[in-house]
Amino acid sequence: MARCGNLSRRDSSNACVTYEVFESSSPPRVAPQDAGDLGFRLKESEPDVEWAESEHRVGFVRPGGPAEEAGLKVGAKVESVDGHDITKSLFRYSTLTAIEVGASLELGLEGGSTLKITAAKKP
Question: For position 53, which CATH number holds?
Fold first, then answer.
């Protein structure tokens, strides 16, 4: 079996998945399995909604977690991560939110507000 590259990992079907790299002053990204906990999850899209039309709405905020401490609320619409527009790309969202424990990122929310969340160790 061929080896995956430095920015790739094998997924559940054993295929190499390559992660996007962004040039910015934001914290370094890591593979999802190595990422810290941000304390929230997005709501899953309805099955009949095309991916390009889906919204990045917060579906769960863990009590006592980093997102709750930052003030994130269930139902908030996430439009950017560290200034990168993620409205049309779930892959870009997943890549940008995979940060090391102790690193922070800024979520841009619908209406123009922002929140800074610092990743913690996974519970």
Answer: 2.30.42.10
Kindly write down the DSSP assignment for every residue of the chain, as one continuous string: -PPP-TTEEE-TTS-EEEPP---SSSPPB--GGGPPB-SEEEPPPPTTS-GGG---BEEEE-TTSHHHHHT--TTPBEEEETTEE-TT-HHHHHHHT-B-TT-EEEEEETTS-EEEEE-B---
Dump pLDDT digits (tens) for 102-118. 999 999 999 999 999 99
Number of domains in the chain: 1
Residue 67, pLDDT above cutoff 60: yes
pLDDT tens per residue, range 68-88: 999 999 999 999 999 988 887
